[in-house]
Amino acid sequence: MFRIALMASIFASPAFAQDSEATLAKKILLGTPMGEAEFRAMSDGNTITYNSQGDDLYREYYRPGTNRVVIEWATPSEDGQINCDIGTWRAEGETICFDWVRSGAVCSAWVNFQGEYISELVIDGERRGNIEPISEITTTPLYCEVGMVSLMAPFSPAG
């Protein structure tokens, strides 16, 4: 629990949220690659918020002891509803891949750069940019039902 609180305080810092794309690219190159064990240790039972240049994009909740995951996007759909999807994650070579029920498969390479977790999109084995740092890790679960998410606390994107 201490590890989560420490990571949350690090990721919530303004310096982390304002990293430029160039700085994040350097951190990806210098970071320690994460495999299945490291990814599971970071994600299991946690809700992770991904960030891009200071704006929260989406959150994923990793059900404890499983490979099941729920995703919620920060931008509501056209009808004002929160969008979500459910799926599973798996290690595939040096990437972590997600198989989403509605939106298909996507893979990312992960690194731990001095306690900051950062992912980069991988398509056909090649890194494609789309670098996303984690801005917050909590234990508050998400639940996705019929395209809706139920939260313990409301989610409002940073901005």
Write up this protein:
With 159 residues, the protein is α+β, with helices and mostly antiparallel strands. The protein has a single domain, classed as Beta Barrel (Lipocalin). The chain contains four helices and eleven strands; from the N terminus they run H-H-H-E-H-E-E-E-E-E-E-E-E-E-E. The chain has helices spanning 2-11, 14-17, 21-30, 36-43; strands at residues 32-33, 47-52, 55-62, 68-73, 84-92, 95-100, 104-113, 116-123, 126-138, 142-145, 148-151. It has an eight-stranded antiparallel beta barrel. Strands 10-11 form a two-stranded antiparallel ribbon. The longest helix has 10 residues, at 2-11. The chain is globular. The model is unreliable at 1-17 and 146-159 (pLDDT under 50).
Question: Helix proportion of residues, in percent?
Answer: 10-25%
Instruction: Indicate the proportion of strand residues.
Output: over 45%
Low-confidence stretches: 1-17, 146-159
How big is the Rg? 15 Å
Biggest sheet character: 8 strands, antiparallel, barrel
Number of domains: 1
